[in-house]
Known about the structure:
The chain has helices at 3-36, 96-102, and strands at 47-59, 64-70, 89-92, 114-121, 128-131, 137-139, 159-161, 176-178. By secondary structure, it is an alpha+beta fold.
Amino acid sequence: MTDDEDRNMNFTTHRIRAGLAVGLLAAAAAGTALAHHSFSVYDMQTTKLFTGVVTRVNPDANHLQIFFAPMNAERKNVERDAEGKPVVWAVEMTGSAQAAADGISVSTFPPGTIFTVGLHPLRNGERAGARVNPGPIYRCPAKTPPGAGQHCNTVQGHVAIGGGQLPVTDPGNPQSQRR
Length: 179
């Protein structure tokens, strides 16, 4: 084998190895992205509809989260645990940039904002879930809760963000709950 043939063979071997390495990295990245965007952690057969009060917004780049305390059925206060502390849930949405383009941000949902959202809860029972999508979020006017058993879409002057209707829930079905 001549020096030129040996050099060409080494060059070809390096190109094949580099191509395999790039392919493996791409496959690993795709698997991570698919796992990250998997909805398997959510119970997509269960829908919960909440009207609650924002406690904070986490504007993470990957998924904006709104933390909130659900309001009681009379809409006079928030639900509380056995120690008297507010029960807090989180709803996860699209990335912050997309959410802001849709009108959902730290500035449009400051603490104290009353809003209504449908979500699919986590399977593990933690108080969090993914926003029903497509599904609207209704923001009540400042300091104006809905009437007893109602949601922000019934309050004059509400703001609707996103399309569609609020999820229909069946009070007789434990997997379909209104709060």
